[in-house]
């Protein structure tokens, strides 16, 4: 193991890691915002409300992220309308394409987590809210969503870590995030083991920090207090 | 869109076959690794527990793509040294075997947790009953624990298999001729990226649906002694 090389390229890898963090942060936050209406619609009682989010979730969970990324980054350019639209400067840029794809991808998974959480709320709590005279919308916003957030938080933290690892795919569309940076450095130094090892350590470190962060968040939201009914 | 996909239909079919082969091979390796990992994690010996924990934590904390790249590019010098030792010049890992090892490693790390959960879910009394009957430790595992584990672990393993099947797309990065690679080639020739990546997406969706149907039957079969008790 050539430690000097690792130390020499550490700053560049850290630079890649910041791009990784940027991608993941935007994707999981925007994905969460998108997933809330999707998840609520997905758990609706009416089939015509359920159908569309179901199809969306089925497509995004049933195909590899790499295919979705290539569909957005390379595929969009096939259409004249897209190339002439005002959004073209963004859809031409690998960063925005990756952010868009990761957001759409993770939103499908988070929507499914949210549906599971909404269905796991004890019926009595919803009935109690309705019995107190809350409207359905009010019960949803003040009782069900806060409750579902606490039930779904552990699964959401898993999803964030999965997205951290999925962000490595951004290197296939020329983005220099952690994996992309590692591949660039290897092209120059021909030392794959050392550089990939260092990149792997970065991923482990980031996921460790994320796990600790979610532990703090769980304590702050008092998730464990909600478990004992 | 032509139905023969500009003549790339047969290539994509060959790619689909390759993807299925890759997924099934990685599944075999992953199941073995997962079972070993779970046994290590639940064993009474501290070093083994530590080893199992180290394996599942390390592999799950690093992206699958990085494993694929590391195993393919990182073993070049190692394999050539091994080749010199065995007198085989130019010995190297093929893209297929690198893909199987990398995906099997990742599958195994997650399967470790699934199997561990299954082992812990089996009532302690079953093991004690085996001991009381005078069965050896290996016998207890193969005759009592393993058959029961299968039913409990199956849903988790099914999820992992679907993730594995989608992860096979990553192996296209190191040049294995599976669905994604063939689509990329078709795109460079025809300049129809959306069409071909959409076709690839539909093939993956079809494979996922097939896997779901297969899992449904396997789960039904595994639960055949339990159907009445659950109703």
UniProtKB/TrEMBL annotation, chain A:
<keyword id="KW-1003">Cell membrane</keyword>
<keyword id="KW-0812">Transmembrane</keyword>
<dbReference type="InterPro" id="IPR043429">
    <property type="entry name" value="ArtM/GltK/GlnP/TcyL/YhdX-like"/>
</dbReference>
<feature type="transmembrane region" description="Helical">
    <location>
        <begin position="53"/>
        <end position="75"/>
    </location>
</feature>
<keyword id="KW-1133">Transmembrane helix</keyword>
<dbReference type="GO" id="GO:0006865">
    <property type="term" value="P:amino acid transport"/>
</dbReference>
<dbReference type="InterPro" id="IPR035906">
    <property type="entry name" value="MetI-like_sf"/>
</dbReference>
<dbReference type="InterPro" id="IPR000515">
    <property type="entry name" value="MetI-like"/>
</dbReference>
<feature type="domain" description="ABC transmembrane type-1">
    <location>
        <begin position="17"/>
        <end position="214"/>
    </location>
</feature>
<keyword id="KW-0813">Transport</keyword>
<dbReference type="InterPro" id="IPR010065">
    <property type="entry name" value="AA_ABC_transptr_permease_3TM"/>
</dbReference>
<dbReference type="Pfam" id="PF00528">
    <property type="entry name" value="BPD_transp_1"/>
</dbReference>
<comment type="similarity">
    <text>Belongs to the binding-protein-dependent transport system permease family. HisMQ subfamily.</text>
</comment>
<keyword id="KW-0029">Amino-acid transport</keyword>
<dbReference type="GO" id="GO:0022857">
    <property type="term" value="F:transmembrane transporter activity"/>
</dbReference>
<feature type="transmembrane region" description="Helical">
    <location>
        <begin position="20"/>
        <end position="41"/>
    </location>
</feature>
<feature type="transmembrane region" description="Helical">
    <location>
        <begin position="191"/>
        <end position="211"/>
    </location>
</feature>
<keyword id="KW-0472">Membrane</keyword>
<dbReference type="GO" id="GO:0043190">
    <property type="term" value="C:ATP-binding cassette (ABC) transporter complex"/>
</dbReference>
<protein>
    <recommendedName>
        <fullName>Arginine ABC transporter permease protein ArtM</fullName>
    </recommendedName>
</protein>
<keyword id="KW-0997">Cell inner membrane</keyword>
């Amino acid at each position: 193991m050539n430690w000097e090389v690792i130390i020499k390229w550490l700053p560049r890898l850290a630079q890649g890691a910041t791009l990784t963090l940027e991608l993941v942060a935007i994707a999981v936050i925007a994905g969460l915002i998108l997933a809330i209406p999707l998840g609520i619609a997905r758990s609706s009682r009416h089939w015509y409300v359920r159908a569309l989010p179901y199809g969306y979730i089925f497509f995004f969970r049933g195909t590899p992220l790499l295919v979705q990324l290539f569909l957005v980054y390379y595929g969009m350019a096939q259409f004249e309308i897209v190339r002439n639209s005002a959004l073209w400067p963004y859809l031409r840029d690998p960063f925005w394409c990756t952010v868009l794809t990761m957001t759409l991808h993770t939103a499908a998974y988070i929507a499914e987590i949210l549906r599971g959480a909404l269905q796991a709320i004890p019926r009595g709590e919803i009935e109690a809210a309705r019995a107190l005279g809350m409207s359905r919308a009010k019960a949803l916003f003040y009782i069900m969503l806060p409750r579902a957030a606490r039930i779904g938080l552990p699964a959401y933290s898993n999803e964030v870590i999965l997205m951290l690892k999925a962000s490595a795919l951004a290197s296939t569309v020329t983005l220099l995030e952690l994996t992309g940076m590692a591949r660039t450095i290897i092209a120059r130094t021909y030392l794959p083991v050392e550089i990939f090892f260092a990149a792997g350590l970065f991923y482990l470190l980031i996921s460790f920090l994320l796990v600790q962060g979610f532990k703090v968040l769980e304590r702050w939201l008092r998730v464990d207090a909600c478990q004992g009914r | 869109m032509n139905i023969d996909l500009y003549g790339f239909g047969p290539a994509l079919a060959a790619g689909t076959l390759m993807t299925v082969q890759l997924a099934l091979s990685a599944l075999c390796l992953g199941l073995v690794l997962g079972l070993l990992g779970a046994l290590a994690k639940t064993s009474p010996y501290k070093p083994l527990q530590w080893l199992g924990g180290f394996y599942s934590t390390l592999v799950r904390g690093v992206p699958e793509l990085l494993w694929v790249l590391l195993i393919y590019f990182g073993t070049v010098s190692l394999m050539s040294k091994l080749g010199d030792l065995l007198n085989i010049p130019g010995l190297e890992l093929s893209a297929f075997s690198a893909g199987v090892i990398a995906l099997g490693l990742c599958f195994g790390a997650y399967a470790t947790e699934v199997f561990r959960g299954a082992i812990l879910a089996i009532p302690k009394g079953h093991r004690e009953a085996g001991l009381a009957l005078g069965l050896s430790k290996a016998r207890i595992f193969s005759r009592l624990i393993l058959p029961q584990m299968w039913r409990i672990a199956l849903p988790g393993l099914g999820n992992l298999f679907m993730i594995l099947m989608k992860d096979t797309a990553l192996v296209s990065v190191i040049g294995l001729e599976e669905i994604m690679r063939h689509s990329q080639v078709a795109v460079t020739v025809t300049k129809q990226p959306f069409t071909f990546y959409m076709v690839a997406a539909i093939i993956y969706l079809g494979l996922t649906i097939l896997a779901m149907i297969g899992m449904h039957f396997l789960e039904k079969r595994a639960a055949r002694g339990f159907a009445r008790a659950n109703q």
